[in-house]
Amino acid sequence: MATMLGQAEAAPEPASEQLPEITGRSPWALAARRLWRNRIAMASLVLFLLIVVVCLAAPLYAHDIAHVNPFVNNLNGTTIVNGKKVPLMQQGGGVLHLGETPIGPTWDLRHYFLGADAQGRDVAARLLYGGRSSLGIGIGSAVICCFIATVVALIAGYFGRAVDAVLSRLMDLVWAFPVYLLAISISTVLLTSANGLQVGPLHIAASSLWLPTLIIALIYLPYVYRPVRGHVLAATEKEFVEAAVSQGASDLRVIFSDILPNVVSVVIVLLPLMIATTILTESALSYLSVGVQPPNASWGTIISDGQDLLYTRPWVAIAPGIMIVLVVLSLNVLGDGVRDALDPRARLRVEE
Amino acid sequence: MLTFIVRRGLWTVLVMFAITVLVFVIFFKTPGIDPVRQIAGRNPSPLVLAEIRHQFGLDRPFPVQYALMMKKLFITRDLVSYSNQGTLVIPEIFAAAPATLSLVFGAAIIWVVVAIAMGVGAAVLRGTVLDPLLMILALIGISMPVFWLGQVANLITQSRFHDTFLFSWVPPLGYTSLTQNPVRWFEGLVIPWIVLSVLYIGLYARVLRANLIEVQNEDFIRTARAKGLTERRVLLRHTLRNSMITFVSLFGLDFGVLVGGGALLTEVVFGIHGVGFLTYQSLTNLDLPVIMATVVYGAFFIVLANTLVDITYAWLDPRVRLA
Amino acid sequence: MTGEPLLAVRDLKVSFRTEDGLVKAVDGVSFTLSPGETLGIVGESGSGKSVTMMSVMRLIVDPNARFEGEVFYKGRDLMKLSREDMREVRGSELAMIFQDPMTSLNPVYRVGWQIAEQIRAHERISRRAAHARAIELLTAVGIPHPAERVDDYPHQFSGGMRQRVMIAMALSCSPDLLIADEPTTALDVTIQAQILNLIKKLKEDFGSAVVLITHDMGVVADIADRVAVMYAGRMVEQGSKQDLFYDPQHPYTWGLLGSIARLDRPKPRRLTAIPGLPPSLLRLPEGCAFGDRCPQRFDACAQVPELTAKAGSDHLDACHLAPGDKRERRERTIHPELTEEPA
């Protein structure tokens, strides 16, 4: 037989890619369509947005429906149950029938729906205000964290060598540090200092919500940095980057128009999961009294307030916990859905 | 393998050094704070302030301050809590350690066993309704704040259902040491173990399931089937064995974090006086020396755990070992 | 080659349910294999050649897969065996080696352990004896220093060496049938010849029949006794190697042969390529699946052609053209330079 080198190989194309209804759509449109079809993920998104809207309406609820100010003591206040005027603090309601117990849930939206806390404040109104803080800190810190981590990862991954080595070692250090201990350390130091954080002209008061937001964003930096940097490195080695560089494109241009679009999907997958994580972290720090500071409330601080009332008025602690579970669960489900929609590996493959 | 351990050990030492520097910078050099006042606790007398300034060398250069601090933490171990009338901090931490270890060990056993069962179950039952059901349970598990779950557990077992046969055996909150009363030790820890393990069960079951499914698609699993091995052997010796690499390294990290103080939320909600509880107490008193010491010791433990994990990882995956 | 066939596949159909519809990966394939014979199955990616042999081994575990047809091995229908009976056959009587030796060995176990594991799955034999057999097998497949290499991990071997380990493993229970799924595709060209020669030599030593799956006509020419050509899940031509190469009947086979550079013929100006792409298995064209790409297409092609013997008793093809027409047209397809005016 003669020497034969030829191969009868046509370009291997998975059969599914040749379907007319799939061709001609951008990957983003495809992903959006997949996400749209994922009913559980869409239901989670709706639930999450619903909770966000309700929490944003907290002042509306407090002023116009419940007519309370949930940030001042109201130990001598009264409310109306079944048309009768009753005091908020009731004598001897506890297990030992000693001292005062706040009123329990009335299940009446206008009159202390979830009852009062140990200082006679409307728990339902505090729950909504607390949600504003928790969601704001959670979303804010996750966005800040993803933004900074992506920028640093782009710089490290694109320039490589010494820049990459220094930045990556710094991130490794934060990574090696246990998140809660790091957050607690920074929080305590800043909370005990007389006038909050002072860096040059920038001043953040100890009671500001920005403090926990920034601290949480900082401690999770490496968790976003690592995967994003990996993708930046992979993208930097691609031919289209070489092509752009050889055409004389500036570094900034290459980073933003050639590399960034290739790592955005990673960040988008991470974002809902990061928000879920940061909300949990915020609640834990607030529960430990090193997160949100009075007079502000968050779901974590309300759970902490409710600890002493747990056996007598359990709803004070249970209600904010349920809110956290609902929000975090919906974000986790949504995050799974986004990942499935964007991950090309999830695509159905025909054998061979 | 030996060179690997040596290399990894050197890196560990470096990380530990970096962490102590970082802690030092956070507590002493954060812009706008006065470390003397912070260490002294509430309403210190001028005399105490002067003594602290001298003891910590705060009028001397940075490296000296750092060295003095490290000496107090590790060599002389005479760091003193000013808020708490001069209690020695380091022995206090060591006294609290057994409670933390008891909590974490028990929870770890539960979460490893249950997570493997759930992960393998879900992967094997893929295509049936049980797989998504198990995974939703896992997802709920990782969505619950542990301290809140602890409160709910307390509400049920200590209050609402305590007088029924279900939970009448649950002792009041707190920790009884193993040597003092083993039965009480066990009874008191059952609920905390379960509560602490819920998050990790969810996390590990999800990770393991994803890993198993990924490994199931590997070529070498097809080879294992082609060899004529039983499905059981393919699952346990090939699929699970390869999936365990991630599982074990995750486990080491989480175990380290928990022993190093990460279990503090559980300790607080159940009143278990471990290392985490100590940190919490010092947070409420703003007792900086204790916080600093628990953070450094906790971080050290975690870094040490990471090192052990990496060595185990190398042992499990020969590709890493000989790289 | 007379007597009972070792393997007889009859009207095998394999389909996968997918999001987009039913994929007919294998659509009515039949062939037989005698003991000791080497059959080459040729086709492009997606032609169903691997799926066919994986189905014979019952290695497809996808719950969305559906199988029809019969696979008789030594008179037993493998498709009807219980899982446990099939497991006993796999690895001991039927063995398979795969395309990518880099990923086909378990990275966490020593190669000797992996070979011994297969032996111990089928024979009552001590650990030590199995280990010794593994060393013998590694010697047989030409791995230098087998006594030391037996305790190495897969990543310590090169691709060619790993494929040798795979072959050693496949032969560990002296199977009667060895299925090699593109065993050289992932390897360097220089290593490819070594592996093929090894398979050829061991086939003689062990007396196994071999089914070699490949997209490379050159490999088939080198090693096969008989050749089957597959296209879009169907078999389009089947016959002895001589028949296939010197008297090909199906226009698709002509295309495959035309795309090969041959040194024993005058140099063509360019190699002929088959126009177009293979059809989607979700939407096969009506009639002959190759019709859309076939330059010889005519009215009859709207019907699915049967695989029948037209050119000789054991030379089957699935084309509507009359044998006389084929002979004339095929020269123009395979060797246009011979029929064209010299430039």
Alpha carbon gap, first and last residue of chain A:
30 Å
**Mind describing the biggest β-sheet of chain A?**
2 strands, antiparallel
| Share in helix of chain C | 25-40%
Molecular shape of chain A = elongated
CATH topology annotation of the domain at 131-342 in chain A = MetI-like fold
Which ranges of chain A are low-confidence, i.e. pLDDT below 50, for 5 or more consecutive residues?
1-22, 346-352
Structural class, judged by helices and strands of chain A? mainly alpha
Quote the beta fraction of chain C. Answer: 15-25%
Class based on secondary structure composition and strand pairing of chain C: alpha/beta
Question: How many DSSP H or I helices of chain A?
Answer: 12
Question: What's the β-strand tally of chain C?
Answer: 12
The tally of beta strands of chain A, per DSSP, is 6
Description:
The complex is a heterotrimer of chains A (352), B (323) and C (343). With 352 residues, chain A is mainly alpha-helical. Chain A has a domain at 131-342: MetI-like fold (Orthogonal Bundle), CATH 1.10.3720. Chain A contains twelve helices and six strands. In chain A, the strands form three sheets. Chain A has a two-stranded antiparallel ribbon with strand order 1-2. A two-stranded antiparallel ribbon of chain A has the order 3-4. Chain A has a two-stranded antiparallel ribbon with strand order 5-6. Chain A starts with 26 loop residues before the first helix and ends in a 10-residue tail after the last helix. By secondary structure, chain B is mainly α. Chain B contains 14 helices and two strands. In chain B, strands 1-2 form a two-stranded antiparallel sheet. In chain B, helix 5 (89-124) crosses helix 8 (182-216) and helix 6 (130-143) packs across helix 8. The longest helix of chain C has 18 residues, at 189-206. In chain C, helix 4 runs parallel beside helix 7. With 343 residues, chain C is an alpha/beta fold. In chain C, the strands form two sheets. Chain C has an eight-stranded mixed beta sheet, sandwiched between helices. A four-stranded antiparallel beta sheet of chain C has the order 2-1-4-5. The radius of gyration of chain C is 21 Å and the shape is globular. In chain C, strand 7 (177-181), helix 8 and strand 8 (209-214) form a beta-alpha-beta unit. Chain C starts with 6 loop residues before the first strand and ends with a helix. Chains in contact: A-B, A-C, B-C. At the A-B interface, helix 5, helix 6, strand 5, helix 10 and helix 11 of A face helix 1, helix 6, helix 7, helix 10 and helix 11 of B.
